[in-house]
């Protein structure tokens, strides 16, 4: 039995490294396949993320353009309203100034008449 074990150990030592080497090569091949699969998944994920980012950017640009258009319209409307209010205020101020000027002119005329009468009385 001892000879049998010696023979078995001899055979294992003789052919074992070749069998283990085959497993290493297979393992390396499998690892290469796994790495390749992972790289393909990463590339696909990166492409998908880039596509989604592009779509989101396009949507954001459209939304910004739409909101800017609305804001411009509202600004235009507010400017029109402000111009109308300014015109009304200017008209009221002009009327008040004209009224004040007329009142001042009437008072000046009355005072001038009074002064003329006093001067006429003093000259007599």
What does the model show?
With 124 residues, the protein is mainly α. The chain is 98% helix and 0% strand. It has one helix at 2-123. The longest helix has 122 residues, at 2-123. The model has no long low-confidence stretch (mean pLDDT 81).
How is the quaternary structure best described?
Answer: single chain
Residue-averaged pLDDT: 81
Identify the overall geometry: rod-shaped
Helix content: over 70%
Beta-strand fraction estimate: under 5%
- Strand count, sense and closure of the main sheet? none
Number of helices: 1
Structural class based on helices, strands and sheet pairing: mainly alpha
Span between termini = 172 Å
Q: Give the number of DSSP strands.
A: 0
Question: Uncertain runs with pLDDT below 50, 5 residues or more?
Answer: none
Sequence of secondary-structure elements: H
Cα gyration radius (Å) = 52 Å
Set down the secondary structure blueprint.
Elements: H1 2-123
Features:
single chain, mainly alpha, 0% strand
Please sum up the structure shown.
The chain has one helix spanning 2-123. It is mainly alpha-helical and 124 residues long. The longest helix is centred in the middle third of the chain and has 122 residues, at 2-123.
């Amino acid at each position: 039995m001892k000879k049998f074990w010696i023979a078995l150990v001899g055979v294992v030592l003789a052919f074992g490294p070749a069998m283990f080497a085959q497993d290493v090569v297979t393992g390396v091949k499998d690892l290469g396949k796994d790495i390749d699969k992972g790289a393909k998944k990463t590339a696909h994920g990166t492409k998908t993320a880039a596509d989604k980012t592009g779509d989101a950017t396009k949507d954001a640009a459209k939304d910004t353009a739409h909101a800017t258009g609305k804001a411009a319209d509202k600004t235009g409307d507010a400017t029109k309203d402000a111009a109308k209010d300014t015109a009304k205020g200017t008209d009221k101020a002009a009327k008040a100034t004209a009224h004040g000027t007329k009142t001042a002119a009437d008072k000046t005329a009355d005072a001038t008449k009074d002064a003329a009468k006093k001067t006429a009385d003093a000259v007599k």
